[in-house]
Structures are given as structure tokens and as C-alpha cells.
Design brief:
Order of helices and strands: HHHHEEEHEHH
Oligomer: single chain
Number of helices: 7
Largest sheet: 4 strands, mixed
Structural class: alpha+beta
Radius of gyration: 23 Å
Shape: elongated
Length: 233
């Protein structure tokens, strides 16, 4: 029992430190975050206190208001922190791979299945919606990468639907912050065993980056494909 309490106590400072670091990161992109959180908390508590005085139960409503004020503040903080994180990642090579890693259960992500020297890259995700190829980079250049990847997969998984998404802010593109939502809205057409079978066939096909170590999240801006390496598939 003592060991469990010690572990919990040791984890608590870590959580608080993580929250503090997240707040500092968010404040750099969103300087008004402190004022917004304070306003949300005070307004929520104030509304419940006012209702409490009107109905003659200020203590009960005050306690409830305090709890809901904390909850509302946490929700607003989470959303603004997420928005700040996406803002910092936007435009960085490999940013979409970091988002794909957090799409949710049931999805298997393979980053950088196709890439060229200009850092245009195609990632692959497999789930019950089928295969989703997510491209980021110059719209004109990534089209050839997508076409080559689709042609290669057609020989192995021709019976599985393939969707392609181009990440960006231009016309016909999907913003990085909307990538997860867009993927989750895709219709589910495969069963669990079919998803597993599709992943097995794609692994047998091999990937461009399977033997090349990649950092988690966005790739460094100075990273380049080695000379003589393939431009795509």
C-alpha cells in the first residue's frame, strides 16, 4: 500500500510540471490565455452563485459552481492548448504523422511511405474506413507521390477503398487541426479481420522508410533524402 501511495505522490509533481509546460507553450502562441481562463472560471462561478442566492441555496450552488468552473476552465484550456500546438506544427514536414499517431484506436499508421528530396511526404493509415494516404508538401509534387503509391498498392490491396488527403490551407486541402476529424468521418466499410489482413499485406509490401530511423513528430527542417535514394513510389 505504501509503495502505491509513493508512486502516486511521485507522479503528481510530474503532472503539474506537464501542465505548467503546456501553459507556457500555449501562452507564447496565445498571450491572452490567462485572462480567458480567469474570465471563464469567474463567470461560471458567478452565474451559479447568483442562481444560488435567488433560490436560497448559495452554499450548495456555490460548491457546484466552483466544480463546474474548474471543469469549464480545463476544457477551454485544453482546446486553446491544442489550437496553439497545431499552430506551431502547421507547415512543418512530418506534422501530419504526429496527428495520425493520435487519431484513435483501430487505426494503424505508417509514416513516410513515400518521400522526395523536397520533403514532400505521404503517410499511410489503415482502419475500418480502408486505407488513407495523407500527403503534405507542394500540391503539384505530392500528386505524383500519391499516384505512384496508389498504383503500387493496387497490385496487393485492390479490394480495399483508398482515400487521399492533402494537408494544407489551400483549396481542396484539409487543415492540420481538422485532419483527425476528417478521418473519423470517413464511412467504415471494413471489419476488424479485414483491417488486420490489409495491414499484413501492406507490411509484406515494405515501405520506403522501414529501415530508416525517423524522429517522432515533425521531421527536422534540414532533413534531406540521401543522394541516389528513390523519389517516391
Amino acid at each position: 500500500m505504501a509503495r502505491k501511495e509513493t508512486a502516486a505522490d511521485a507522479a503528481e509533481p510530474g503532472r503539474l510540471k506537464q501542465i505548467a509546460l503546456t501553459y507556457k507553450m500555449t501562452r507564447k502562441a496565445d498571450p491572452k490565455i490567462g485572462l480567458v481562463l480567469a474570465a471563464v472560471g469567474i463567470l461560471t462561478l458567478g452565474v451559479f452563485l447568483a442562481i444560488g442566492f435567488l433560490i436560497g441555496h448559495p452554499v450548495y450552488l456555490g460548491i457546484l459552481g466552483l466544480l463546474l468552473a474548474f471543469l469549464a476552465t480545463a476544457i477551454v484550456f485544453g482546446r486553446r492548448a491544442e489550437r496553439a500546438a497545431f499552430g506551431q506544427m502547421e507547415g512543418q514536414p512530418g506534422a501530419a504523422a504526429a496527428v495520425l499517431d493520435n487519431v484513435g484506436r483501430g487505426w494503424t499508421t505508417t509514416p513516410a511511405v513515400a518521400m522526395n528530396r523536397s520533403q514532400d511526404v505521404v503517410h499511410r493509415a489503415v482502419g475500418k474506413a480502408g486505407i488513407v494516404l495523407v500527403a503534405e508538401g507542394n500540391p503539384n509534387r505530392v500528386k505524383s507521390l500519391l499516384a505512384a503509391e496508389k498504383k503500387k498498392m493496387a497490385r496487393i490491396v485492390s479490394d480495399v477503398p483508398v482515400h487521399d488527403i492533402l494537408v494544407g490551407t489551400g483549396e481542396g486541402q484539409v487543415e492540420l487541426k481538422k485532419l483527425r476529424t476528417t478521418m473519423l468521418k470517413l464511412p467504415r466499410v471494413l471489419t476488424g479481420p479485414q483491417v488486420t489482413a490489409t495491414n499484413d499485406r501492406l507490411r509484406a509490401m515494405g515501405d520506403l522508410m522501414s529501415n530508416m530511423p525517423l524522429p517522432k513528430g515533425p521531421m527536422p527542417k534540414g532533413m534531406r533524402m540521401p543522394r541516389g535514394g528513390p523519389k517516391g513510389r
